[in-house]
Each structure stands twice: as structure tokens, then as C-alpha cells.
Amino acid sequence: MEAIFGKQTYRKGLILHPGAIGDCLLALPTASLMKQRLGIEQVDWIGRTEYIEFYPGRSAVDRIRSLDSIPLHRLFQKTESFEVQEHDPLVYSFAGYEQVVSFLGHENPDFEQNLLFTVHCSQSAQVLVLPPDKESYKGPIGRFYLEEIAAENQISLDNWQTPSPLLEPHPTDFSAGREQIQQLGINPDRSIVLIHPGSGGQTKCWAAENFILLAQMLRQERYEVIFLLGPAERERFSVRTLRTFHQYPYFSELSLTQILQVLACSDGYVGNDSGITHLAAALAKPTLAVFGPTDPAKFAPVGPKVRILRLERTLFKQFSEPCVHQALTLLREIL
């Protein structure tokens, strides 16, 4: 195809997603669908790079770009006043894509019309703007995305399965993860369970005392337990709780790629409804996800070895030894 943008020799798709770690991972199967059912050879992802830095080379996503590198604010202008110029950087940002799926701008009809116009300045394309959530859809939200893309392209999802794992670590990830574990004074060949007691939202955090008791029980079963603690956890938990966590080996200040590397070398994972929990599941690690206010029927992490502990709000926010025993029982099923 000859155009003002030159000759294109391969088919490209684009996913535009402004969400955080877990939201993006729930949408990640759309990249696999593009390649396996739509014949797309390269999938790019525009998002917050700190949340998607590990995609290229480990997933169906080939290239990432930052939201901040593109003047996306222009797409929110009123359609009647929207225009592009010759050699417009906005047009070049969307040039050459045959499939575009945006999770940005779904509540703004001007955005969708302006995106369509911009993409079609270089070639014809299928452009779909999806909401990150759809209240009326009661199944897994990731399935909703796939069904919408299939309907837009008039294809069937029959016999199509989400790839497992969604994320395949590099060989170097294992050596890097082992090295980080050794720096804690732990033999990486031991059976290791990682526990992340935090989440992006405080309301989604199971009472910390439950994680501490679970760690004690796992130690009694001869597992090495490592806590993952980030800036949010250090701000959220009391000094007393943090001191209890610090009685165990723990990681803090790790990048997402480093967390992925440590997860790759672990035997199991426990956490709340959080981005790190979705990351563990996407790596096909045995994952126990504890859900309180959010609905696992819609937002459960995607992976072949996931168990869900769903607790009513009052139980979720308090210490409960029976609930911890229930968690351990579920975890034993997959370890």
C-alpha cells in the first residue's frame, strides 16, 4: 500500500488504554485475539509506560508508547472544530493501523469521531472505542472486550482460548529473580510463596492480620514466605503492622519488571484484588486472590491456577482465623 506515509509491508494493530496494571492485564488478551484471529502481525500499546513496561517480548504486544508522547487531548475537541494539518503529528501517531481498540474516550462521542477521522487519514481501519467496564455485563470483563472486537470484525470466538500464560518471562528474568531472592538470604530453590497485602485502593485490602497469620501457617508447612511492600503499603499500614511484616523477608522499591522477575521464580502468590495479583495470574503462577467489595465474577485475574476467596464486607475488614484457614485450604489446592 502506497500512501503519504510510505509503503507498509505488514499489518498493524493498536490498543489505547490509560488504565493501571490490573485493568491493562484484563485487556491484554485482546492483543492475542488481534494476532490469532484478525491476522495482525504487530500490536502496539499506548498507555502509561510504568504499568506496561514489561509487555514487549513477553506478551502479544510488540511495542509500547507513552500516553504523554501523543497530543491525545486534541481528540476531545468538538468534532465541528477538530482539524488536522499536513504532516500533523497526531495523524502520524495513528498512521498504518488496521485495527484500533481504544479504552479511552468512551463517554465522549466527539473523541470517537475525531479518532475515526484521524486514523482514516492514513488508511481505512476498524476503530472500536470500549468502556473499561460495562455495568450490564455480568461475566468476565475481559470476555466482554473480546466479544465486542469479534462482533466489530464479524468473526467467531468459537474454539478460541485466552493464551496461557498471558506473559512469558524472558530466560534472563529467571536469573534476575533468583539473584534478588538470594539477596534476601533465601535459597531460590526452596518453595517460595509471595504475599502482597496491599492494593491500589484501601477498600480492597483484606485486614493485614490475616496475611500475617497466613504467613505463619505457610512457614509451618515449610514454605519460604516473602512479602511485597510498596510505597502505598508503607503509608497505609501502622508502624506496628509494618514491624510485623518486617519479621519476614520482604521486597520494597521494586519496579514492575523486577516484581515480574521475582514472581517468575516463586511457587505461589497471595494478594488482594490488585495489579500485582493480576500479574501473578498472567504469569500462570498459583494465585490466591482475596476479594471483598469488588466482584470476582467480573474482575477475577486471568490465569490457569487462580483461586478466589470472596468475603462479605464485615469479614473482609476484620481478623478472622477461620477465613485464614479457608485461604490456606484454597492455596493448597494449587501449590
Description of the molecule:
The chain has 335 residues and is of the alpha/beta class. The protein has 2 domains: 142 residues, Rossmann fold (3-Layer(aba) Sandwich); 164 residues, Glycogen Phosphorylase B (Rossmann fold, 3-Layer(aba) Sandwich). It is 38% helix and 16% strand. The strands form 2 sheets. The protein has a 6-stranded parallel sheet with strand order 8-7-6-9-10-11, sandwiched between helices. A 5-stranded parallel sheet has the order 3-2-1-4-5, with helices on both faces. α7 packs across α11 and α8 packs across α15. The longest helix has 14 residues. The radius of gyration is 22 Å and the shape is elongated. 40% of the residues are buried.
Please give the alpha-carbon distance between the first and last residues: 52 Å
Mean pLDDT: 94
How many strands in all?
Answer: 11
The main β sheet shows up as:
6 strands, parallel
Query: Would you tell me the structural class of the helices and strands?
Result: alpha/beta
* CATH level-four homologous superfamily name of the largest domain: Glycogen Phosphorylase B
Helix fraction by DSSP (H/I, runs of at least 4): 25-40%
Number of helices: 15
Look up the CATH topology of the largest domain.
Rossmann fold
Order of helices and strands: EHHEHEHEHEHHEHEHHEHEHEHEHH
Percent in strands: 15-25%
Strand order of the largest sheet: 8-7-6-9-10-11
Uncertain stretches of 5 or more adjacent residues: none
Shape: elongated
CATH architecture of the largest domain: 3-Layer(aba) Sandwich
CATH class of the largest domain: Alpha Beta
Q: How many domain regions? A: 2
Using the CA coordinates, give the radius of gyration.
22 Å
